[in-house]
Amino acid sequence: MYRRKIMETKKQLHPIMFAGTGSDVGKSIIATAFCRIFKQDGYRPAPFKAQNMALNSYATPEGLEIGRAQAVQAEAAGIPCHTDMNPLLLKPQSDHTSQVVLNGKPIGNRNAYDYFRKESREELRKEVHEAFNRLFVRYNPIVMEGAGSLAEINLRETDLVNMPMAMYAGADVILVGDIDRGGVFASVYGSLMLLTPEERKRVKGILINKFRGDIRLFKSGVKMLEELCGIPVLGVIPYYKDIYIEEEDSVALAMKAVRTVQGKVNIAVVLLRHLSNFTDFNVLEQDSRVHLFYTNNVDELNKADIILIPGSKSTMDDLYELRRNGVAQAIVRAYRKGATVMGICGGYQMMGQQLLDPDRVEGEIEAFPGLGLLPTITRMSGEKVTRQVKFRLHDEPSETMEGYEIHMGMTFPVEGEVMKPLLRMENGETDGYILSATCMGTYVHGILDNPAFIDFLLRPHAHKLAEKVSDFDYHSFKEQQYDKLAEHVRTYVNLPLVYQLLTTDYD
Fold first, then answer.
1. Would you name the residues annotated as active-site residues?
2. CA-based, 20 to 30 A from 189: which of 109, 247, 339, 473?
3. How far apart are the first and last CA of the chain?
């Protein structure tokens, strides 16, 4: 009844920003939930994060690059993703440097000191403001996300993404605290007290996230927080385990189960130091025919039926590390014993005979031997390819599939070899290399989102399956998960009060 009333009386809502007491408190997931909630309630929301730092990126329909989290939020909102949703993306290359992607295109590498200098910020601030302005005239409401803590007072003058952005947008800020990590009273209260009086006025409510146990036991805690902070606690959201939303970073990958499983195809993803676009493997995690695990342990790789080498932000550096720790040799041994090896993007480049970097795009190493599994050579270049693509398998009938490319470098056959493409693009171009049904590589991210390609990949190992199962529909699965997430948040958040905040004008 309440939802129907909202849909019948839609108003222009204020922008809403979910800011955190720190990193990894759940801002991205909560913003995703609200994108779906507003969509369900008849609005046309759009996500916005002025500056994102992540290796997990995505190509927009225009062939430009944004953070994967905003692409997921756009999907939850039911709209195409666009660079205006994440105008500034930092892709870490080391502990001190990042590639800077502005409005979807790389503009160079910066070290942290130079990037955060006040003198270099105003042009970037102008760009993120203009991106927000373009979204604001097209969508209602704008669901904004902060970064890290909203109270990084040492960065106040150079901050582009937290309170200065909220002030510019006229956003109602909701402070998200993670009770699971402990210290939620100090982190919430302390964060608010470190804000200026003008900034504090913009914070309209508090959300407590990742609660475990009986919520009734925190009733007194809610009252204490409201008395301390002078603003309402809008909800206490329990920790969940049965909702699957793409994660923003790869921190938890190494914790995923390693043991092999009988009756399934056991697939190992090589855990690279600079692993990027790990969401390439989300579909396989849900496929009932597959047991997927992430590892850089040579004994565990030896147990896999299929080894997937993922993308990397520093391909040469990761390849050097694979040779140093014995993983490179383990991959080759597993292939010779019958395992399938497939590389995606940087992983595809590693599978060749040699990687060349004469212009030192990635570092000081100008040439390095690859794994030698494919008769190819890759030459690194400073020009980045970003685009969405449609394709079919090159040498056998298949349905049209979809994916996207984000890579630097060109791969070609060694002298005397003929290119044997894995894929044929809709525009007539080709991609990748296939040596056999158990040895191949591609530049296409998202290739494993296509059931037809997963069937192709699993075919040599189909005899290991205990029983035949139906194809997995990843699109339908994701839609169900967004709806489950929205319902979970609706259950524990005071939505009437949220809508009241977003429609009340304040002095």
1. 345, 445
2. 247
3. 32
